[in-house]
């Protein structure tokens, strides 16, 4: 029954036609569909109701859950319509167990599932319980998207049973959620408790099938989607099928073969009718009862059966076998093997290998495709001041030469594991008591480690990313928090900017923190800073930090929070202000009581504070009188900091993107270290302050619409609600506002930062801007109410959350910008140059800013110094239309013929179009599409900047459909998936952004440079081999079938044949089947070295004679001629004799075999011992079979008797004369035509082959002359040095 449900489910998916968003209907409105207070569940419409599988809701569960899919899975390659005899329903399941030891296939919607660490999630579940006291759970999604970094999931917020041991009987809530769909990043719904309170659900609460539980002892969830309704299975569309261009052309040829078959059968039917009508008084028996018309009708279908070999059905099977052979050699090409990653090319689509040889447009992503996607912090700008990090730049140059060495730094344990390197997967799942250890706790014992901990590193933790060399100028300013190293004192405002900048780098992310000896770092309940607040105060006073030296001891008295508040009070503009009245201290202390994060001091603590203040005054006097002791104390402080750094060296950051990891490592280099993370707080080390627990209020994740992410925190020092934002500079710069009271200062900062951004982009760096915003409590409360409504909404949840984030991310204060280097992959310039020489147009589609993309284009040789850039950055659609017309006129006026030299250098300048995302959106509309196509066709290359994933796919589809060209898209990230799937050939690069691009691609490579070998060599070979094999196959069938057709003119069109039926069956099946396969797999018109050195041969092969449509008719005419020779030479040779029918057919079959096999030898470009063996075996199999049949078969083919016929024929010399004469006469015109054509119009391939031969011969002669000269010189030298040698030896 489940199998029938699965078939019904797949049919519904196909009929719905919207596989991207699921198959459910959305025609009804939610309010009319389901009464939320109605306890009865419904399964139709846009959402579903889920009841738990327990006693209270048992009846509702049984009534509703049976209408949902079970967790049984059936995956098949074929469907009922394509291949019924195969195993259509291949059932598989796992033996993972639940509470009552149920198999995976028995899990249904509404069941509770209990999982332990390292277990695979059997179905999509809503997380209800986690052994972590903070209600978080870590999962690894490698089975889903290939990413090995850990993702954090959390228990449903405000869940009544959170923090308690979960029991299914205590769960009495009802779940409303959307119907199944394939969107992995979206989940909408709410949970309604028994008291009527609703709690919103989102993707952070959902555990997806096939993911693995990591670093969490136990979790409990309730199943919401099972089986084929899980998101993982709905994203599994089965084997992808693409039809190649050559296959489409073959279908046309097959239709012409059907037309030929129809004409031949119709001719035979008409001829038989006339023949029957001509015998009024026949001397032999003729069926006079059947009318000639009816007899002709019968003969028509008889001839269809006799001549059906003309339709090369076996050609399709042969093509599949040939493609398997070609893929085998592609897959095992060592030049496309990446030793560092231990990966080789993957051929995921088995039916489009020949399309690799016909590519005309190549669309490439930039980050991770042309570049390494190994982001390394390079430089930054803070407060309008640039910090170039020159030492860091020199370090990167050193790493350039060490790129082939170990990329991941080895982190070892102190308990005997120093020799083991880290793996990339976490398998350690300690008990709660172990997982709550912090960095300052004692390390676990060795036996615990050996039993529970396996070493690992985080994603994107390369050595280059981790070892950032700080800028001396920036270090000098930061040292004012702990040290006095310069006579210049930075302003309090600048110091505030610097502190907030690095704090934003450390916390504005989704990085998971762990270490080798601990699965993750959590936030302790109470944490004491590494230095007391009074030590911080003393530190500033010792070094005469002007804002604090003016403070009297009485003004500093109060709670530690009061001191910190006055020290780091920030307004919206980020300036540092100080409160001097004593009364303000009391007010602030009182206000601090309203927040739990602001502890009060008891009376005893206040007394201790007075004592410490007195000690502070004594310390100040000691500092003035004993500077040596002060210097010694600073050295001790430095050693303490270094000790802390040794501890934090073992931190492992698991980031979702490489640039996120690079920024966290950069902040850590300046001692602003992210040490732990939980769902509600962050643990951060700040320079000069120590460890602080920061309350995490909200995370607004990055999305392609906003192009930024934000975190909302409560500042640990001021208690204010602060929004830290990082994102694309084009977005942040527009959102940054200047306050009215300090407009000049902020405009200066913004202007300087923009100049630095432009400079970074010209250097090819990836740029990000960092900003902040301080919210008042009433502003935050007002925004929070709307945000909570958006989170709990089912309808339009994503749109509401987007609007909520945009309302918050306004009037930002610009802190600074960062420049991250992403190096080009090796041999990218050479690969791009080779592709352009092959006349493949290369387009770059990237989300980066324009200057960065142009700089990378120059670096990878996509742009030359002589090329002219055409920039399209428009502010409106009308301006875009006018600009396109002007650019088209400019290109038409400046166009000139571009002749390519052997080095691919252009004899005249070319045009390069650079277009931004906004202008591209208008260009893709119907009104401007034609102008955009005309302009892009006239340009050598196009660079699309700031483009979204949807725009990428739209560009590829536009070029593919409207220009009718073969397109290839290559990318490495999830944002390239749509582009890869739309293109005729999709290539995924297994890079730093997971495996989503690889899993959606037709071919997967590890480096961009492998494209040149894949296209120029393997693509050229596959296309030429299959094109020639198809023509040869059609020729072979037409030639042999015509022998039977010509015989009909001499047998009254009766459908008789002149050969044995077994020979007729086996001629195409056995005797002539193997040579075309070897020909299609091993033939090489040119060696790989020549194809790589002369990329121009790639395009010339597409326009060669084998690819022209009229070659089909030339091949058919040649087959007709050879069949005429093969039939009528034996006919005239045996004219007037009493030879029998089978005796007449014997030399015809033998001659046909020789002609067909030698025809292939003539067409082959390669003749190896394998070819010779196959040809010999084909001939031997034919003659061996007919001789055995002739010698031993008496009644094998009634009513004829082949006994002794072949033996008799082969005993006569006439048989061999006929075979030789027929073969030579049939093949001589083809040889003459090829010689004449190659003499008058030699192809580029032939010229290249001749050049290779000449070069080899010249090299051989030069080596002979050198050897002779060298040998003579050696002999003369030997005789001169040894006068005693005999002349003959000298």
UniProtKB/TrEMBL annotation:
Active-site positions on this chain: 365 (4-aspartylphosphate intermediate)
Record-annotated P-type ATPase C-terminal domain positions: 998-1243
Highest taxon, organism lineage: Eukaryota
Membrane topology field: Multi-pass membrane protein
GO terms for cellular component: endoplasmic reticulum membrane; plasma membrane
Domain P-type ATPase N-terminal: 60-96
TM segment ranges: 254-275, 295-317, 1033-1050, 1062-1082, 1110-1133, 1139-1158, 1170-1194, 1214-1233
Keywords per UniProt: ATP-binding, Endoplasmic reticulum, Magnesium, Membrane, Metal-binding, Nucleotide-binding, Translocase, Transmembrane, Transmembrane helix
Location of this chain's protein in the cell: Endomembrane system; Endoplasmic reticulum membrane; Membrane
Pfam family, one: PhoLip_ATPase_N
A molecular function GO annotation: ATP hydrolysis activity
Biological-process GO terms, alphabetical: phospholipid translocation
Catalytic activity as recorded in UniProt: a beta-D-glucosyl-(1<->1')-N-acylsphing-4-enine(out) + ATP + H2O = a beta-D-glucosyl-(1<->1')-N-acylsphing-4-enine(in) + ADP + phosphate + H(+); ATP + H2O + phospholipidSide 1 = ADP + phosphate + phospholipidSide 2
Region: Disordered, residue numbers: 578-637
Residue stretches of biased makeup (Polar residues): 578-594, 623-637
Alphabetized InterPro entries for the sequence: ATPase_P-typ_cyto_dom_N, ATPase_P-typ_P_site, ATPase_P-typ_TM_dom_sf, ATPase_P-typ_transduc_dom_A_sf, HAD-like_sf, HAD_sf, P-type_ATPase_IV, P-type_ATPase_N
Biased composition (Acidic residues): 605-620
Biased composition (Basic and acidic residues): 595-604
Cofactor dependency: Mg(2+)
Binding site for Mg(2+): 365, 367, 972, 976
E.C. number: 7.6.2.1
Name of the molecule in the record: Phospholipid-transporting ATPase
Organismal lineage: Eukaryota, Metazoa, Chordata, Craniata, Vertebrata
């Amino acid at each position: 029954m489940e199998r029938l449900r699965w078939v019904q489910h797949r049919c519904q998916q196909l009929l719905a036609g919207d596989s991207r968003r699921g198959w459910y209907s959305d025609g009804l409105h939610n309010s009319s569909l389901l009464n939320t207070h109605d306890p009865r569940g419904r399964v139709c419409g846009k959402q579903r109701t889920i009841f738990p599988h327990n006693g209270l809701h048992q009846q509702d569960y049984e009534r509703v859950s049976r209408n949902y899919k079970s967790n049984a899975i059936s995956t098949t390659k074929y469907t009922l319509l394509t291949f019924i005899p195969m195993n259509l329903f291949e059932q598989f399941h796992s033996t993972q167990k639940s509470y009552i030891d149920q198999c995976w296939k028995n899990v249904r919607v509404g069941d509770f599932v209990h999982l332990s660490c390292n277990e695979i999630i059997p179905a999509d579940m809503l997380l209800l319980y986690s052994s972590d006291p903070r209600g978080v759970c870590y999962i690894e999604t490698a089975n889903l998207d290939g990413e090995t970094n850990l993702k954090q999931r959390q228990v449903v917020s405000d869940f009544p049973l959170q923090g308690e041991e979960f029991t299914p009987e205590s769960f009495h809530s009802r779940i409303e959620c959307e119907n199944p769909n394939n969107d992995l990043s979206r989940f909408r719904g709410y949970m309604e408790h028994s008291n009527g309170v609703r709690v919103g659900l989102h993707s952070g609460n959902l555990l997806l099938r096939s993911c693995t539980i990591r670093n969490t002892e136990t979790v409990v969830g309730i199943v919401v989607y099972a089986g084929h309704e899980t998101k993982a299975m709905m994203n599994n569309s089965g084997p992808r099928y693409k039809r190649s261009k050559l296959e489409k052309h073959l279908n046309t040829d097959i239709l012409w073969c059907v037309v030929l078959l129809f004409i031949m059968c119709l001719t035979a039917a008409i001829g038989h009718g006339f023949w029957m009508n001509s015998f009024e008084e026949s001397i032999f028996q003729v069926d006079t009862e059947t009318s000639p018309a009816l007899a002709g009708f019968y003969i028509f279908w008889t001839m269809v059966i006799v001549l059906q070999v003309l339709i090369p059905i076996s050609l399709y099977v042969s093509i599949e076998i040939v493609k398997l052979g070609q893929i085998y050699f592609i897959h095992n090409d060592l030049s496309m093997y990446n030793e560092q990653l231990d990966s080789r090319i993957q051929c995921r689509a088995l039916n489009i290998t020949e399309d690799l040889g016909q590519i005309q447009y190549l669309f490439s992503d930039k980050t991770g495709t042309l570049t390494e996607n190994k982001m390394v912090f390079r430089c930054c700008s803070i407060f309008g001041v640039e910090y170039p990090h020159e030492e860091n730049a020199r370090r990167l140059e050193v790493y350039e030469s060490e790129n082939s060495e170990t990329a991941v730094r080895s982190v070892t344990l102190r308990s005997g594991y120093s020799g083991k390197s880290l793996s990339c997967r976490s398998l350690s799942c300690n008990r709660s008591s172990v997982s709550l250890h912090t960095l300052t706790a004692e390390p676990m014992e060795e036996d615990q480690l050996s039993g529970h901990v396996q070493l690992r590193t985080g994603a994107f933790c390369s050595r280059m990313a981790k070892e950032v060399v700080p800028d001396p100028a920036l270090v000098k300013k930061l040292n004012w928090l702990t040290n006095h190293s310069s006579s210049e004192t930075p302003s309090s405002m600048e110091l505030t900017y610097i502190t907030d900048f690095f704090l934003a780098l450390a916390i504005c992310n989704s990085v998971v923190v762990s270490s080798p000896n601990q699965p993750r770092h959590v936030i302790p309940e109470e944490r004491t800073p590494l230095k007391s607040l009074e030590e911080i105060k003393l530190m500033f006073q010792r070094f005469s930090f002007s804002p604090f030296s003016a403070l009297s001891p009485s003004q500093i008295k109060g709670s530690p929070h009061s001191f910190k508040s006055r020290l780091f009070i920030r307004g919206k503009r980020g300036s540092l202000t100080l409160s001097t009245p004593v009364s303000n201290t009391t007010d602030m202390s009182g206000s601090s009581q309203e927040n739990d994060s602001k502890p009060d001091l008891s009376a005893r603590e206040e007394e201790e504070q007075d004592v410490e203040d007195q000690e502070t005054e004594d310390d100040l006097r000691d500092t003035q009188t004993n500077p040596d002791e002060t210097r010694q104390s600073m050295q001790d402080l430095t050693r303490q900091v270094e000790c802390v750094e040794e501890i934090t060296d073992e931190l492992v950051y698991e980031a979702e993107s490489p640039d996120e990891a690079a920024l966290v490592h950069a902040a850590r280099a300046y001692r602003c270290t992210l040490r732990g993370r939980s769902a509600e707080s962050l643990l951060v080390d700040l320079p000069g302050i120590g460890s602080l627990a920061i309350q995490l209020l909200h995370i607004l994740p990055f999305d392609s619409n906003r192009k930024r992410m934000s975190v909302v925190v409560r500042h640990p020092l001021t208690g204010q609600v602060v929004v830290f934002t990082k994102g694309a500079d084009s977005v942040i710069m527009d959102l940054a506002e200047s306050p009215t009271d300090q407009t000049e200062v902020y405009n200066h900062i913004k202007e300087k930062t923009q100049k630095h951004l432009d400079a970074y982009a010209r250097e090819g760096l990836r740029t990000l801007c960092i900003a902040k915003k301080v919210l008042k409590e009433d502003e935050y409360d007002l925004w929070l109410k709307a945000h909570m409504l958006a989170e709990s909404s089912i309808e339009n949840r994503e749109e509401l959350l987007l609007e909520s984030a945009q309302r918050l991310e306004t009037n930002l204060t610009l802190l600074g910008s960062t420049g991250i280097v992403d190096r080009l992959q090796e041999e990218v310039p050479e690969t791009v140059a080779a592709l352009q020489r092959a006349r493949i147009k290369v387009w770059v589609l990237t989300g980066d800013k324009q200057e960065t993309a142009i700089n990378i284009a120059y670096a990878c040789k996509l742009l030359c110094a002589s090329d002219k850039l055409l920039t399209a950055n428009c502010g409106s659609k009308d301006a875009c239309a006018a600009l396109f017309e002007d650019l088209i006129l400019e290109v038409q006026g400046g166009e000139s013929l571009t002749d390519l030299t052997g080095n691919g250098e252009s004899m005249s300048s070319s045009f390069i179009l650079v277009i931004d995302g906004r202008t591209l959106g208008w260009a893709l509309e119907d009104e401007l599409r034609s102008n955009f196509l005309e302009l892009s066709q006239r340009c050598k290359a196009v660079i699309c900047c700031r483009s979204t994933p949807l725009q990428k796919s739209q560009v590829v589809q536009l070029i593919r459909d409207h220009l009718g060209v073969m397109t290839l898209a290559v990318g490495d990230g999830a944002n390239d998936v749509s582009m890869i799937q739309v293109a005729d050939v999709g290539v995924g690069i297994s890079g730093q952004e997971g495996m989503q691009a690889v899993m959606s691609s037709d071919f997967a490579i590890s480096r961009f440079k492998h494209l040149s070998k894949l296209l120029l060599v393997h693509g050229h070979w596959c296309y030429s081999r299959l094109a020639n094999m198809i023509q040869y196959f059609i020729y072979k069938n037409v030639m042999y079938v015509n022998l039977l057709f010509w015989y009909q003119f001499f047998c009254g069109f009766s459908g008789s044949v002149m050969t044995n039926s077994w020979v007729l069956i086996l001629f195409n099946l056995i005797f002539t089947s193997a040579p075309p396969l070897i020909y299609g797999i091993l033939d090489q018109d040119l060696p790989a070295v020549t194809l790589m050195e002369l990329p121009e041969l790639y395009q010339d092969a597409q326009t060669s004679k084998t690819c022209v449509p009229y070659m089909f008719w030339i091949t058919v005419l040649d087959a007709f001629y050879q069949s005429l020779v093969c039939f009528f030479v034996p006919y005239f040779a045996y004219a007037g004799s009493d030879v029998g029918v089978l005796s007449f057919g014997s030399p015809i079959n033998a001659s046909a075999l020789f002609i067909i096999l030698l025809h292939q030898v003539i067409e082959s470009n390669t003749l190896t011992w394998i070819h010779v063996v196959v040809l010999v075996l084909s001939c031997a199999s034919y003659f061996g079979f007919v001789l055995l049949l002739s010698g031993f078969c008496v009644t094998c083919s009634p009513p004829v008797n082949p006994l002794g016929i072949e033996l008799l024929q082969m005993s006569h010399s006439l048989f061999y004369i006929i075979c030789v004469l027929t073969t030579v006469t049939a093949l001589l015109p083809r040889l003459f035509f090829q010689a004449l054509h190659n003499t008058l119009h030699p192809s580029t391939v032939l010229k290249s082959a001749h050049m290779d031969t000449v070069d080899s011969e010249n090299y051989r002669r030069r080596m002979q002359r050198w050897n002779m000269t060298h040998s003579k010189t050696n002999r003369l030298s030997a005789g001169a040095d040894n006068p005693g040698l005999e002349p003959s030896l000298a």
